[in-house]
Amino acid sequence: MKSAVTLLTRVRLLRVLVLCAFSSAVAATTVATPEVRGNLIITGSDTLAALVSDWADAFVDVEPGVTIEIQAMGSASAPPALTAGSANLGSMSRQMTRSELDSFFQQRGWLPTAVPIAVDTIAIIVHPDNPLESITLDDLDSIYSANHACSGKAATHWADLGVAPALGALPVERYGRTSISGTYGFFRERALCRGDFAAGVNALPGSAAVVSAVSQIPTAIGYTSMGFITDQVKVLPIVSGRDTSRVQNYDADGSVYPLSRTLWFYLAFDPQQPPPRLECAFLQFIASTRGRELLRDGGFEPVDSLRSKVDGALTLAEICNDDA
C-alpha cells in the first residue's frame, strides 16, 4: 500500500504548506493582535526552548489574555503531540520524517503546516585549555562514529588529532545529545555520513548540559547549538580543504558552514479551515521587529530568504490573513 504522503502527492488532494515566516514586510512592524485569548501549548525542541520562552514572555506582555505552556522534551516529541491534539505548535530542529507525516495524516486526514522560523549553527566545543585550533568533518566522524563511514578511521586519543602530550596521550571524552533530539539526528547525518554513534558517546538530554560538561572536563569535546555557547568553552572552526568556516559565517542552506540548519514550527490545523487566530497571532509576533530582536539575542539568524522547494509554498501572510 502506498504511504499517505505518496498518495497525497499523486492525487494532489493537499499540499505541504511551508511558510516563510519572516518576510521583510511583516518584519517592519511589531504585531499586537487585539483581544487574542486562549492557552497555547508548544511542544518539542530543547534547542528552541530558551528562544520560545523569550518569545512567549514578550507575547504575553502585549497579549495578557494568552497563557503559553512550553514542553521542551526534544524534537521527536512534537509530531505525536500534534497528532494527538495535545499541542498547538510543534517546535523542531529538523523537518518531520516521512513516517511522522504518515502517522499524522492517518490520524488527522491532512498534513501539518511547516513554518521555518530560524537558522541555527551547531558548534564544536572543547575545554578552553585544549590547544586544538580547528577540526574537520572527517575528524568528527573519527571521534564520534562507530563505523567511520566518512573518514575510514577512528580517533580515540587526542594524539590522533595531532595534539601533543600531555593531553595527546589522553582519551577523547565525547559528549552529545540523546536520540530524541533533532540535533542528534542532524549531527549524525552531516558529520557521520548517517553512520552510527559509537557506544562510548555520553548522550545528554539538553544542549546546556553538553556545554556544562565540556567546560569542566579538559579532555572533552561536544557539539551543541550556538545559542547555548558560553565563555567557559572554546569553539573550534571546521576546516575543509583550504577553507575555514567559522560559526559566525553561514547560510540557511549550510553552504558556508557545514553544520548550519533550519529550525521549524509545525501547526496541526486543517488547511481547508480558517487558520487558528491564536497561533497566527503568535507567529506574527515572532516575525515582528521585537520577535527578530529576541531571535538574534538568542544566537540565531532569521530565514528571510529561505523558500521551500515544495511546489505551492505559501507565505505567512497568505495563511494568517486578516480574517484569521
Total helices: the number is: 11
| Proportion in β-strands | 15-25%
Biggest sheet overview: 9 strands, mixed
Q: Shape, please? A: elongated
SSE topology string: HEHEHEHEHEHEHEHEEEEEHHEH
Low-confidence stretches: 1-33, 246-255, 305-313
Radius of gyration: 21 Å
- Termini gap: 37 Å
Q: Briefly note the structural class of the backbone.
A: alpha/beta
Mean pLDDT: 83
Share of residues in helices: 25-40%
The number of strands is: 13
Topology:
Blueprint: H1 4-11, E1 19-20, H2 24-27, E2 38-44, H3 49-62, E3 66-71, H4 78-84, E4 89-92, H5 98-108, E5 113-126, H6 137-144, E6 173-177, H7 182-191, E7 202-204, H8 207-216, E8 220-225, E9 234-236, E10 238-240, E11 243-245, E12 260-267, H9 277-286, H10 289-297, E13 314-315, H11 316-319
Descriptive key words:
324 residues; alpha/beta; 9-stranded mixed beta sheet; two-stranded parallel sheet; 13 strands
Write structural notes for this entry.
The protein has 324 residues and is an alpha/beta fold. The chain has helices at 4-11, 24-27, 49-62, 78-84, 98-108, 137-144, 182-191, 207-216, 277-286, 289-297, 316-319, and strands at residues 19-20, 38-44, 66-71, 89-92, 113-126, 173-177, 202-204, 220-225, 234-236, 238-240, 243-245, 260-267, 314-315. Helix content is 29%, strand content 20%. The strands form 3 sheets. Strands 2, 3, 4, 5, 6, 7, 8, 9 and 12 form a 9-stranded mixed β-sheet that branches.
